[in-house]
Amino acid sequence: MGSGQKVATLTGGTDFEAVRETLDRLQHPEEHFEDRLHLIAASSMMSHGVDIDRLNVMVMLAFPLAVAEFIQATARVGRRWPALVIVIPKMNRERDASLYRFFPEFVTHGDRFVEPIPITGKSRRVLERTVSGLEMARVTQIHEPELRKSLVLRRDLNKVLAQTPDLLDSDRLKIAADLGFSANDQFLQDQLTSWFNGFRRNLVEPTGESNLLSEMSPTGAPMMSLRDVEEQVPVKGDSTR
After folding, report:
1. Is the pTM value of this prediction over 0.90?
2. Residues 138 and 209 in one domain
3. Cβ–Cβ contacts within 10 Å for residue 221, how many?
């Protein structure tokens, strides 16, 4: 490798600031080619969430144990333009040697070896985490355009409910219909009714000091990401740096 080539390392032991700086340089490369990063030596930490168009050649040393990890890692290149992935198996591993012999079939049918996620659309836990987002979406995407007014605050929606008291009941029925709930899904119907009852109660008598409509949900604020499935930990930056 030429001495003028720039190399960065991204592993689980890399300092967070260094990771952020490296990703920023990849996404916003320097003007002159000789000043840019030319090679990234990375561990499996690169297998998720790194969507950078510049990455177009990957050399993978050995096969990951999980097929899903292989698919995720190789998907880091070729995000926009055709790319090349060179896989170097460790032939002293029986699994790597077997995959090498049947590599075309492995790539063709790899999706079949990915373990499915145990989740169902009619899960009470899923409904609990998503119902607030569903109702907030109806408020902001349907009711606000129809009424031509902002419904960001609690008092705004209360004024609307004073004129159309059946609005929330209508929303509940439409959400149940969109989710495909039937008469056999009584537990889910009851859970949905309970949420709307709690939402209406919080609109009249909020439990906190906030007046934001998005914080009136009895099950917490709407999810900001599909990964937002557990109680979140607040992260605070150091303002002195």
Report:
1. no
2. yes
3. 16
